[in-house]
Amino acid sequence: MIKKIVSFFLIFSILIGLNTSFLNYHKAYAEDDDECGNDKTCRINRSRKRQEELQAQYEAARSNYQSLIALANQYAKDIENLEAEIALITPQIEDLTVRIDELEKSIETNQQLVDELEERVLTRMAEAQGTMHFNPYLDFILGANGFSDMLRRMYGIEAINSKEEADRNELADIIETLTRQKNELDEAKEDLENKRLDLELKQAEAEKMRSYYNEAAEAAEEEADNYRNQIEDEIRLQTSIEFNLEDLLQLDPLTGFSSPVPGSTISAGFPYYPASFGGGVHLGVDYAAKIGTYLYAPADGIIVVSDDNCATYGYLGNSCGGLGGGVSYGGNQIYFMCSVGGSIFALTFSHLYSGSVHEKGIVTQGTPIARVGSSGNSTGPHCHIEMFYLGPGDNEDLITYVDKLKHGDYSLSFNCGWGSAGLYTTCDNKGAPCRLNGANYLPH
User: Fold this and answer.
1) How far apart are CA 104 and CA 353, in angstroms?
2) CA-CA distances (angstroms) from residue 11 to 3, 125, 289?
3) Host domain of residue 403
4) How many structural domains comprise the chain?
5) Phi/psi of residue 388, each to 5°?
6) 154 with 295, same domain?
7) If you compute the radius of gyration of the chain from its CA atoms, what whole number of angstroms results?
8) Half-sphere exposure of 47 (CA within 13 A, CB side)
9) 129-145: per-residue pLDDT in tens?
10) Strands 368-371 and 294-296
């Protein structure tokens, strides 16, 4: 028990140390930021370094927290065993208390009997000693009227002596039994009292440990939350530096969508391939156009993923894609997020022309961001576009939604699933985030 208390205090002291280093850490890096000035690359690198160090501190804090949880779980088992022991002993104490009361009453009654018998014996002895000059039994026998009468008197005296001896033996046994019972009861009382004291001490220790655990666990969780919040702040800082927040706020959120691939035709719609293609789930819209046709930003927004690692021409079953942050089989890809009409949308563009993919950053509506290709799992030139509604918001909220993707709160399907699972995450079936039919929003 003492070892556990010491362990709790050790971890608690570590947490205090971490909190001190946490404050010193921020003071040091505030000075580093001043050294970078307006150098974008320097500031991003500084922020990433801070994020890595914060992550290490966060993991240490979480480890301490988990250690506390492990100790608490073990101690909870000890408390459970203790309570089980208390539950068993308590009725025993009650039963023995009743038994003690009954035996004490019996002892009191038998003691009165013993006292009365002893008093009678002592009285008879005193009376006999006052008048007796020789053996009274011999006098009684010699006073018989003949030999037969003498034998009767002798047999009578023997019977009386036997009865007195039996009574004396019985009384001796009763006294011995009562004495033993008194000793046993005294020992039982002492044992039960010791158990009561022991349980009271253990219960007091349990309350202390609960208090230590609650205080230390709360501090550990708060420490971990502090680091996690700082990590999220660093991610937001990187995003705002990378995408230039001031420029983002100048974008027009009310323009509406324009055609990403002007002059294209829809060769496969949402959410199924046409029968001529063999049917099957198709969670995007395919805009067919000549190889090399320009793809334009359909609104003011941010390119958050720029994946350009595949050859322009792929084939059916080609898994190329994903090295730059996209998904396998998608070929060269762009992930684009924007605010239009008070809502946040995400769009993905796949199977793009090699070397044409725009780098990450803020783009305005109508900016060329790629060209139509046939990379990855593709049998002909087209741009596969998937569209998602993420929730309400304007350009100022975009950073928060971008963070969700970068921080892993959103999957690459924006938590809407792939394949058949994606059929159940359309906006007709659920709220944000959900899938949209891009043909209803993007002109062509």
Assistant:
1) 102
2) 12, 81, 64
3) 248-440
4) 2
5) -135, 140
6) no
7) 48
8) 19
9) 555 444 555 565 566 66
10) antiparallel
